Each structure stands twice: as C-alpha cells, then as structure tokens.
Amino acid sequence: MQIAEDTFASIHYTLTNAAGTVIDASPTGQPLTYLHGAGNIVPGLEQALEGRSAGDRFNVAVAPEEGYGQSHPQLIQVVPRAAFQGVDTLEPGMQFEAQGGQGPMLVTVTKVDADEVTVDGNHPLAGETLHFAIEVADVRTATEEELEHGHVHGAGGHHH
Ligand code: ZN
User: Fold this and answer.
1) Pairwise CA distance, residues 97 & 105, whole Å
2) 57-62 and 103-112 beta bridge pairing
3) Which domains, ranges and CATH numbers included, belong to the chain?
4) pTM for the full model?
5) What per-residue confidence (pLDDT) applies to 156?
6) Rounded to whole angstroms, how far apart are CA atoms 83 and 115?
7) pLDDT tens for residues 66-98?
8) pLDDT at residue 151, as a whole number
9) Cα distances (angstroms) measured from residue 100 to each of 8, 96, 152
C-alpha cells in the first residue's frame, strides 16, 4: 500500500546538511513512525513521502521554506555575560529557554566573549537545506483512535 493521508508510515532516515555532515538519523532497527498528513514531520519530507511504498529508497533535498524555515537575523542577540548568573561554564552550543515577545523560546549560545554572549533564537536547522536519505519500512492504515489523537499508537508511538 502507498503512503497517503491518514496512513501510518515508518521510515529509516539519515539527515545530512549541505556540507555532508550527518545531523540526525533514525537508530538502527528503529524506524521513525508518523501519521501522514498530520504535520508530524517537516512539510518537504512529508510531500516527498506521499505515494511511496514499503521498501522504497530515495533521497530528497528539502529547502528551508519546506523545512525549518529561514534564519531571521533579528533573533540573533548579544546579551551581557551577567544575564547568565549561576551558569558556571558557558559554551557555544548550549541551549537555554528565554522570554521572547511571543512567550518562551529556545535560544542557542553561538559565541562567548569575556563580557558578552551571542545567542541565536532560530531553530538550529533554520536556513539549512535538509538532505534526507529515506527507506520506507512499513505503511498501514491508521486506526480511528490514532486519527482522533493525531499520533501513532504502539511500537515507536504513544502507549496509553
Ligand atoms: Zn493517543
């Protein structure tokens, strides 16, 4: 059967950036399970999976607009080191929750100077073209209960 709206699909994936560095991958033998059409995965990947069947292997490049969005320079800010009181070691790559204009947002430290720290509120993959290598492991119809909940039950999904 083919992946379509309201089907449950499991996929093995490897996500690589433009430089060829592997950013993320499904653990060996543990495919990612998702409900197709529910927006559980980035739109560009969901579109590329439409109509695929178990055993299909393909590569897809997802542009930022169909991935994690563009990077917004206004979300990059330089704040005083003193704003991180109680944090002994501050290093690039650390993430903190900060108060943004629309509520809490996750920021990533990108640069640490003696007095100032640069933080980036963009998604770490914003502005990146996402290169996915995909193998479809399984496709089945979603149950009524899964459709109601908007997520997958059982192996690789919710248990409740
Ligand atoms: Zn549920």
Assistant:
1) 6
2) unpaired
3) 7-68+126-149 (3.10.50.40), 73-120 (2.40.10.330)
4) 0.78
5) 67
6) 10
7) 999 999 999 999 999 998 888 889 999 999 988
8) 82
9) 35, 12, 32
The CA 58 to ligand 1 mean position distance, Å, reads 30
CB atoms within 10 A of CB 111: 12
Q: Residue 107 corresponds to which tokens in the numbers above?
A: 């920021």
d(CA 47, CA 12): 16
Residue 141 Cα to ligand 1 middle (Å): 15
In the chain the first and final C-alpha atoms are separated, in Å, by: 27
CA of 145 to the centre of ligand 1 (A): 7
Q: What is the chain's length?
A: 160
Q: Distance between CA 111 and CA 115 in Å, rounded?
A: 11
pLDDT score for 147: 85
**How far does residue 152's CA lie from ligand 1's centre (Å)?**
7
pLDDT digits (tens, 9 = 90+) for 23-74: 999 999 999 999 999 888 999 999 999 999 999 999 999 999 999 999 999 9
Q: How far is CA 123 from CA 28, 70, 127, 130, in A?
A: 26, 9, 9, 13
